[in-house]
Design a protein that fits this description.
Elements (H helix, E strand, L loop, with lengths): L3 E7 L16 E2 L2 E2 H11 L3 E8 L4 H10 L7 E5 L4 H9 L9 E4 L9 H14 L1 E7 L5 E3 L5 E4 L6 E3 L3 E4 H14 L6 H6 L6 E4 L10 H12 L1
Parallel strand pairs: 1-4, 1-6, 4-5, 7-12
Antiparallel strand pairs: 2-3, 6-11, 7-10, 7-11, 8-9
The structure holds cytidine-5'-triphosphate and magnesium ion (MG).
Magnesium ion binds next to loops.
């Protein structure tokens, strides 16, 4: 089996979280969020390289976060991200360590609780199907709402899934999807959408309720609560 590559987009500025330090470098029990993600990625024997896309202005913060947790390694590669998440991943995908037939996972650096089990579940599904993502049934009723606040429609809850990362793809599939998106100017909030756009089926497997994305300060409190139990 070819080694897996894990791409960790970490070039964002965390506008919704706010504050001076971008959220991926904020601490949870004294350890930066990004270090949790890198540590889990490196702990998996299947993983060859971890490619982190960063804002070059954050390089010193990133290197400090890694070195303070002894996570600097020749398996960890740092590339320059872009102004949108999609551009950051596109940049990482160009790296020569990734062969087209290998599996690539894209995982938000700010989801500190992705487990080995979750990676395996998504990875095994992608090995078989070419593309797989974790998703959870939604609890709330979801409606689409017009600009002025008037409800347009109520979506059928039973078919809806709130999707997470890690999302996993055969590298050649993901590269084709990104090339196609760049050519047509398609933008999306997750990687699977770009793969769907080239007509490749994406399998949705069970996600993990603890695998939250730290988006606002409240999420960091929730993450702290998870560590307390
Ligand atoms: N990301 C990235 N490059 C960007 C924007 C986002 O690599 N130009 C990364 C973030 O660093 C994060 C992940 O994509 O690890 C998920 O994005 P999100 O939660 O939206 O983070 P931010 O974009 O930083 O936050 P916000 O949207 O609130 O500004
Ligand atoms: Mg964002």
């Amino acid at each position: 089996m070819e080694p897996w590559t894990i791409i960790l987009p970490a070039a964002g500025s965390g506008l919704r979280f706010g504050g001076d330090v971008p959220k991926q470098y904020r601490h949870l029990r004294g350890i930066s969020l990004i270090s949790y993600s890198v540590r889990t990625a490196l702990s998996m024997p299947e993983v060859g390289h971890v490619i982190i896309a960063i804002n070059p202005e954050h390089r010193a913060m990133c290197e400090h976060a890694l070195s303070s947790q002894h996570l600097q390694s020749d398996r960890v590669l740092i590339v320059e991200g872009g102004t949108e998440r999609q551009q950051s991943i596109h940049a990482a995908l160009q790296h020569a360590v990734i062969s087209d037939s290998s599996l690539v996972f894209v995982h938000d650096a700010v989801r500190p609780f992705a487990t080995f089990d979750l990676y395996r579940r998504v990875g095994l599904a992608a090995m078989e199907h070419g593309a797989a993502i974790p998703g959870l049934a939604v609890r709330d009723t979801i409606k689409s709402v017009f600009d002025g606040g008037i409800v347009e429609a109520t979506l059928p809850r039973s078919v809806l899934r709130a999707v997470q990362t890690p999302q996993c793809f055969r590298a050649g599939v993901l590269r084709s999807a990104y090339a196609h998106a760049a050519e047509l100017g398609i933008t999306a909030t997750d990687d699977a959408s770009l793969v769907e756009a080239i007509g490749i089926p994406v399998l949705c497997v069970e996600g993990d309720e603890r695998n939250i994305k730290v988006t606002t300060p409240l999420d960091l409190l929730i993450a702290e609560a998870f560590l307390a139990v």
